[in-house]
Write a structure and sequence with these properties.
The complex is a heterodimer of chains A (about 80) and B (about 375).
Chain A lengths: L2 H14 L3 H4 L13 H15 L16 H10 L2
Helix pairs in contact in A: 1-3, 1-4
Chain B lengths: L6 H19 L5 H15 L4 H25 L5 H24 L10 H16 L8 H8 L13 H9 L4 H33 L3 H4 L3 H32 L17 H5 L4 H22 L5 H20 L3 H27 L7 H23 L4
Helix pairs in contact in B: 3-4, 3-5, 4-5, 8-10, 10-15, 12-13, 13-14, 14-15
The chains are: A mainly alpha (about 80), B mainly alpha (about 375).
Chain lengths: ~80, ~375
């Protein structure tokens, strides 16, 4: 796996406290209750400190950043 | 004229919007006409109230200067204090108006809609700082701020979302779909506000029983008032969304069956959605982000609780400085922090089978009554 992708997925798994996001990277994070507003804050803080990606809060809209795969794609897009 | 409170207003709106509708069906967009409509409607809403109109104009000039300031400040990033100064200055007119409304109700300089306009301006200042808005023309600012379907009471739209809709070229077919959606919303508004809301107000809220200071009387008032509040406000919002659609703007919905919420978190995703999402994005998430990034508080639950506390207490103050509004905010702060703790514990120990039908029914019923009690506080009936 691409190291950037692996790192990003590990962060998401860390915040959601489950490996399900790595096993099934198409799981809808908000509908399934794995991620909430506080989780989003934790994600953004970790993306900034671990991946050097600064994503503004209002850029993280829940329709676009809905699954682990989509999040990785969005992060890569802003690389 | 207060929007959406009379058939005369609805009829006049429909008549004035006809050219926009015809143009839309032909796949065209007459932006200058839509802008003229906005100015005309500001005139209609504030007709006979010159003082409020002048306040609105002064307020708009003030906010425009602040937006210009924010755009200039964004070119030299890193000045955090400058950003918060601009946010403070943007909120200042609303805060001052609220304070004056308490001390001297007759002398206040507020105007209809000031609270909702403030949300739009503060949001723009934040997004300018975050680099998401890089330029703002005076026309798109005015067209966004004064967008007449939502001028007085929301729903609260976002600048970038609004602008995207404004610039989109709609084909006749996709405009027709939007038109149907708009008409659908307008009819829902009629049903909710002019029929159900009106009936509750006229036949239930006026009953002597509901005015009695007995337990039974207050309970009956609580449910009647809760339903009245919902149907009146959701009806208003449906009109606002409906008329937006006719102009090719997809203003976000404000309500999604709030009385069917499964818990308080769910409730705030269904009740006055654009308001709670505004507070979520610009208060809760900013505060928790600040605390998490600086590691000021170690405990994650404490960080989240601080965010909820700030959000709902601020929301209470936003409704007004009267005691019942502030208690309403505190009530929801306590509920959210409590529910958040419950959710965390349940994730670990799994003692509440939230997915079972029976558990769902119990939590939905409980949430309904807890929400209604909140509206009773909000109504000011208790104190």
């Amino acid at each position: 796996m691409d190291p950037f992708r692996e790192k990003a997925l590990n962060i998401i798994a860390d915040v959601c406290k489950t490996d399900e996001v790595i096993r099934n990277p198409d799981v809808p994070l908000f509908e399934s209750g794995l991620l909430d507003s506080f989780g989003v804050v934790e994600l953004l803080v970790l993306f900034e400190s671990e991946l050097q990606k600064k994503i503004p809060i209002t850029d993280f809209d829940r329709e676009t950043w809905n699954t682990p795969n989509r999040i990785v794609a969005e992060l890569e897009g802003s690389r | 004229m207060v929007p959406y409170t009379s058939f005369a207003y609805l009829g006049l709106s429909f008549l004035l919007l006809l050219p926009s509708i015809v143009a839309g069906l032909l796949g065209k967009r007459v932006r200058w006409y839509d802008f003229a409509l906005t100015v005309a409607f500001v005139g209609i809403m504030f007709a006979g109230n010159r003082e409020q109109l002048l306040f609105l104009i002064g307020y708009t000039v003030w906010q425009w200067l602040l937006i210009k300031g924010a755009l200039a400040a964004a070119k030299k990033p890193g000045k955090t204090y400058l950003h918060y100064l601009l946010v403070g200055l943007s909120v200042a007119p609303l805060a001052a108006a609220k304070m004056m409304a308490v001390s001297n109700p007759l002398q206040t300089f507020a105007f209809l809609g000031i609270s909702y306009l403030t949300f739009k301006c503060v949001q723009m200042i934040f997004e300018i700082r975050d680099g998401q808005i890089q330029e703002v023309s005076v026309w798109s600012f005015l067209s966004f701020l004064w967008f007449f379907p939502t001028l007085t009471s929301g729903p609260i739209d976002r600048y970038r979302r609004y602008r995207k809709d404004l610039q989109e070229r709609l084909s006749p077919a996709s405009y027709r779909l939007l038109l149907y959606e708009g008409i659908h919303h307008i009819f829902r508004g009629l049903l909710y506000k002019f029929l159900i809301g009106y009936l509750i107000k006229t036949y239930l809220l006026s009953l002597p029983l509901l005015k009695a200071a007995t337990f039974y009387g207050i309970c009956s008032y609580m449910y009647a008032y809760s339903f009245y509040l919902f149907f009146d406000f959701a009806g208003y919002s449906a009109f606002a969304v409906g008329f937006s659609c006719l102009l090719g703007i997809r203003t976000p919905d404000n309500f999604r069956y709030p009385f069917l919420s499964r818990n308080m978190k769910d409730f705030w995703n269904r009740w006055h959605i654009t308001l709670s999402h505004w507070f979520r994005d610009f208060v809760y998430m900013r505060i928790t982000m600040l605390l998490a990034r600086r590691k000021l508080i170690k405990n994650r639950y404490a960080v989240s609780s601080a965010g909820y506390g700030a959000l709902f207490i601020l929301m209470g103050f936003w409704h007004g400085l009267e005691l019942h509004y502030i208690v309403y905010g505190l009530y929801h702060a306590v509920l959210m922090i409590g529910y958040d703790g419950f959710e965390r514990l349940n994730k670990r120990y799994k003692f509440w089978p939230g997915d079972r039908a029976a558990a769902r029914a119990v939590s939905t019923l409980l949430t309904f009554h807890v929400a209604c009690f909140g509206f009773l506080i909000f109504s000011g009936r208790l104190f």
